[in-house]
Amino acid sequence: MSGRALVLAPVWAWLLVFVALPVVIVAALSFSTSIPGVPPYTPLLQEPDAQNYAALVADTYYLDAMGKSLLVAGVSSALCLLIGYPMALAIARASERWRNLLLLGVMLPFWTGFLLRVTAWIGLLRDEGWVNAALGLVGLGPARLLYTDFAMFVGVTYAYLPFMVLPLYARLSKADPALEEAAADLGASPWVAFRTVTWPLSLPGVVAGLALVFIPAVGEYVIPELLGGPGAQTIGRALWNEFFSNRDWPMAAAVATALLAALLVPMALLRARAP
Amino acid sequence: MRRGWFLPGALVAGYAFLYIPVALLVATSFNPSRLTTVLGGFSLRWYAALFQNERLMGAALLSLEIAAASATVATALGLGAGYALARFGRFRGRGVFGLLLGARLVLPDVLVGLSLLLLFVQMEQVLGWPAGRGALTIGLAHVSVSLSYVAVVVESRLRDGGIALEEAAMDLGASPMQAFGLVTLPLLAPALVSGWLLAFTLSLDDLVVATFVSGPGSSTLPMVVFSALKLGVTPELNALATCILVVVAGALLAVLGLQRRGR
Questions:
Q1: Is residue B57 classed exposed, middle or buried when 0-12, 13-18 and 19+ CB atoms within 10 A define those classes?
Q2: How distant is the Cα of B116 from the closest Cα of chain A, in angstroms?
């Protein structure tokens, strides 16, 4: 049908040129060599060479960075689940009239800007910041909070919490509360009813939420850079430095390709289990 | 129920976690002292300093232009993409189509930024376009990210209903084009407005992708803010954040009001 083709053609063209092709170029570039010049690399796919990948595996710097990234993403997505699940459940159980307003309350900080939210945490966590001022009032501290792993965990959790709450809410609001009531009528304690009825029904939402937080958090650059301090080398920062500081584009491409490969598993999980 | 207090408590704690940092930031921006935790008095001096900062204002203007242009293109393309996903059934290549659209929603920014920069460099070598990098390449990059978000908004709105109305229009003799223009588009108007605004804020908010694909002389607002932040938070930046907060919250409430009246 020509009408359909007319709608689809520009979108297909855009997706192929601006989404698919760039990934192919990154993969191709990861096999070339850095040289001085414009652009600073040997022509793509002439004498392909896996030396960048050899360096990636040989130098513990990259493996450590990947480990750090997985740690940050893992801890933060767990924290998001811990905070987000009760919130999503409470919103799903609220009366019809309140639900949209409560959901909007979760979304609003997401709309106010990413850098802004990180800025707020710098103000809270720095040595003369709000948290230390509060600690001082009760005779504690001052504690070093900013530029620590703790600051990174909190920052990533804060930034990505809405991505956890929304899919959980979507799933929980579909579950029939009568099921849990039936379990209670049959003698289940609230905890048993939750564990055997509500939690299993919400699992697809849990998987989607975890993946939606975990995947972007692994590649996160800004939060480790601003809250994590110089020692907190994550894979996102490694890629950034390879590109902007070392000007080694092929190496940056190799890091990017490895990062993408590592993310394929959670991405496939998300596609398979998402509601 | 014994759990009666637990869920509301968790909800309140969650909102406190979300809002206290922002509230403190807003409070600090009106504080005359440079020491952020010493609250005393009310002052607009940081706002005055902000509006006299030409570098920040220039970057803000550039960011607004890029955001408006890229949101408009993304909305047009996202309308096509979302319409295809909701109404075309199992068209050929639908799996790949959905995968490419979905990939942008989750891929880390550093990956998107690096891959798009390399695309632009290769395109310039092969086609001679785009010549150099700057506002144009930032805009193109932002379209390719926010297109996916608009498509999701449009698709979910179309899935909620409307197909019966379109079919009725066609039964009554409307051509598919007429049905689209007279029935589908008005139905989609609120989704298009929220899609456009989402694309607009995503563009305004983006630091990482823009840094990769920008050129000399084209620093967007987040790029200027980020380089300032690396040196530490100033009250001026808090004032800027408060301004953005007010504008975004205002726009959001306006859209909600529009949607409510439209029902």
A1: middle
A2: 6
